[in-house]
Backbone:
C-alpha cells in the first residue's frame, strides 16, 4: 500500500506543488490583509478569501479529474494489476493521496488565519472586535467542502473529454459553495457535505471497480 501511495504522489506531484504554493501565497496575503489593514478594508479581505477558495476549488477538482482521466488514458491501473495488488488497494491509495493534497492546501491557511486573528484580538488596535468566529465550527465544513470538490473531480475524470467535464465540475463546485454559504456552517452544512462526499466516493469506487482496464 505504501508503494502505491508513493507512486500516486509521484504521478500527481504537480498538484502537490500547486497546492503548497497556493497555500503559502494566500496564507501570506490573508495574514497581511488581516493584520496590517485590520478591518479598514473588509471588502478586500472577503475578496481575498473568495480568491483563495476559487483557486483551491480549481486545484482540488483538477486533481480528482486528473487522477481518473490519466488512469483511463494511460491504463495505469492495468499496469499496477500485474503486481500483487487489488483494485481496492489502488483506489484506496488514490483517495489517500487526494486527501493528503487537500490537507497540504488547507492547513497552512487555517494556521495562518487562526494565529493572526489571535494576534489581532490581543492588539490594542483591534478594529474587528473580540472574535473573528474562526473556530472548528467554521473550518471543519470548509475542509469538508474542499474534499467534496475533490470528489466532484473524481467523477469528471471518467469521461472521454477532459476540458468540458472539468469545467462542469468546477461549476458544480461553485454551486456547492453557494449552497453552503446560504445554509451556513451549522448542522445543515454537515447534512449536505457528508452524504455528498460519501455518494461521490462510492460512485467513483463502483466505476473504478467495474471499468475495463
Residues:
Amino acid at each position: 500500500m505504501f508503494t502505491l501511495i508513493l507512486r500516486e504522489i509521484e504521478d500527481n506531484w504537480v498538484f502537490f506543488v500547486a497546492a503548497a504554493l497556493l497555500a503559502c501565497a494566500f496564507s501570506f496575503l490573508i495574514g497581511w490583509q488581516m493584520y496590517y489593514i485590520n478591518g479598514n478594508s473588509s471588502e478586500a479581505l472577503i475578496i481575498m478569501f473568495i480568491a483563495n477558495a476559487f483557486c483551491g476549488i480549481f486545484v482540488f477538482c483538477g486533481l480528482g479529474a486528473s487522477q481518473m482521466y490519466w488512469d483511463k488514458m494511460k491504463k495505469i491501473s492495468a499496469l499496477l494489476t500485474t503486481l500483487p495488488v487489488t483494485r481496492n488497494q489502488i483506489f484506496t491509495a488514490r483517495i489517500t493521496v487526494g486527501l493528503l493534497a487537500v490537507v497540504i492546501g488547507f492547513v497552512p491557511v487555517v494556521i495562518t488565519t487562526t494565529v493572526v486573528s489571535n494576534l489581532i484580538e490581543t492588539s490594542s488596535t483591534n478594529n474587528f472586535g473580540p472574535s473573528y468566529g474562526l473556530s472548528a465550527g467554521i473550518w471543519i465544513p470548509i475542509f469538508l467542502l474542499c474534499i467534496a470538490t475533490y470528489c466532484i473531480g473524481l467523477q469528471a475524470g471518467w469521461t472521454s473529454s477532459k476540458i468540458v467535464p472539468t469545467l462542469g465540475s468546477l461549476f458544480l463546485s461553485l454551486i456547492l459553495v453557494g449552497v453552503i454559504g446560504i445554509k451556513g456552517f451549522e448542522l445543515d452544512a454537515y447534512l449536505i457535505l457528508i452524504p455528498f462526499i460519501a455518494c461521490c466516493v462510492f460512485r467513483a469506487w463502483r466505476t473504478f471497480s467495474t471499468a475495463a482496464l
Notes: Residues 2-210 form one domain. The chain is about 80% helix and 0% strand. The CA atoms of residues 159 and 165 lie 7 Å apart. Residues 126-133 have pLDDT under 50 and may be disordered.
